[in-house]
Amino acid sequence: MIKKVLFSALFAFACNLGFAADAALFEVNEQEISTEFAQLDELESYVNANDGVTFSAMDASNPLLANVSAGNSALGVVSSLAEAPLGIPSFLWGFCFNVAGVAIVYFVADDREETRKAFIGCAVSGGLYILWWVFWVLVAGNAFLFF
Amino acid sequence: MHKLRLWVGLVILFLFMLPNLSIGQHRFRLKAEFSIKEKNADGKLGLTMGTVYYDKTFKKIVYQVRFPEKETWVISDTVFHRIVNGKLVAKQFIPMLPSSTLFDYALANNLGNFGLEKSFYKAGNPKKDGDQVITTWTPDDRLKKAFGEVIISRKNNQLYGIAFYSPKNELLKKQIFKGYLKAGGISFPEEITEIIYKIEANGMRSQSTKISTFKNLVVNDLKDQNIYNFPVPAVVSK
Questions:
Q1: Which residues of A touch B96 (CB under 8 A)?
Q2: Domain total for chain B?
Q3: Which residue blocks in chain B are alpha helix, DSSP H?
Q4: Which of the pair, A88 or B157, is modelled with greater confidence?
Q5: Of B43, B49, B96, which has the smallest distance from its Cβ to A87's Cβ?
Q6: CB atoms within 10 A of CB B4
Q7: Alpha carbon of A122: minimum distance to chain B alpha carbons (Å)
Q8: What pLDDT is stored for residue A12 in this prediction?
Q9: Buried (b) or exposed (e) across B93-104, using 16+ Cβ within 10 A?
């Protein structure tokens, strides 16, 4: 009986540990972040207070600009604001849309590596189609001969 | 008897008008001021500020950036356009569709599950932990080699956190949503803290942090039509 109680308690404890790990995933050190971003908070207030001010128009020696990049990573910024879990990798463009998908990646991305991925996707898709066709002709097709 | 007929007539008229009345509830565009603060793994800092516009009909996300420099970014289909002084200076393919973004989900009041319920992801059983409800979403078996799990946390029935994993179950990034702006019948995150994890060439893990804040949310704004449907120059200027 005692063993059962202990086992149940241990099991419940283990389950709670598992849940805690999930919730803890979304905990962040607010204090640390606040300290790290204090300079940027000040810079933001400065930009809000000085309408139309840009990085290039500010004095480079301004301590608010210390260690701040002059340009921004536009795509990085966009990915923050417009996260897309359904973003379509080049491989899938080729896999799903075949030659048209490769053409889209080739013309739009203008990137050899991305185009190569799309081409691999297209080739895999084509290979699967041929296998599927062979399967139906050789296996299912022969099966029809028995009727 | 006449009164009864009058009432029946009014009820029928009301029922016929319902579809027209519901058009007034249709949310098709939003705009908000944003600021994004970044601290990269190398310690470099970044600040980007401006206003973002999204229209479901035009399927365009338009960013009017005012800091660090004045420029316009337009995302339509899967193309990112960078426009400076009215000239298209760069155009790049990005794996992102405007209809699969935070903006579209917010307009559809579908932010709670980040649009995953309409995807190839399947939800596991939700688990309650304190004030969070955690759900693990797993991709379709056929896509498990390309996509990892996504864990979603909800607080007070609103999206609180989302974490993306690689197919090898490595944490790629997580976002925490703090506070919500409310306007025109929708809720939109007021602050998003994002931590991105990266495995460097030497095998060490590094992380960068971004804080996105939004204010002055406007829904179904009928002004600025030319911005919501920003005309992108066809040719990249050299």
A1: 78-79, 82, 84, 87
A2: 1
A3: 2-23, 102-107, 225-228
A4: B157
A5: B96
A6: 8
A7: 15
A8: 42
A9: bbbbbbbbbbbb
Q: Encode chain A (147 residues) as per-residue pLDDT tens digits.
A: 455 544 444 444 443 444 444 889 999 999 999 999 999 999 999 999 999 999 999 998 999 999 998 876 666 666 655 544 444 567 777 787 777 677 666 654 545 666 777 788 888 888 888 888 887 777 666 554 444
CATH assignment at residue B43: 2.50.20.10
Domain assignment present for residue B108? The answer is yes
Question: How many domains does the structure of chain A reveal?
Answer: 2
Q: Return the closest-CA partner of residue B38 out of A31, A26, A61, A78.
A: A78
List chain B residues with CB under 8 Å of A25.
Answer: 151, 153, 161, 163, 171, 174
Q: Are residues A58 and A1 in the same domain?
A: yes
Q: Give B42→chain A minimum CA distance, Å.
A: 10
- Quick check: pTM over 0.80? no
How near does any CA of chain B get to the CA of A119, in Å?
16
Both tokens of A102, joined, read 């490769």
**Same structural domain for residues A64 and A127?**
no
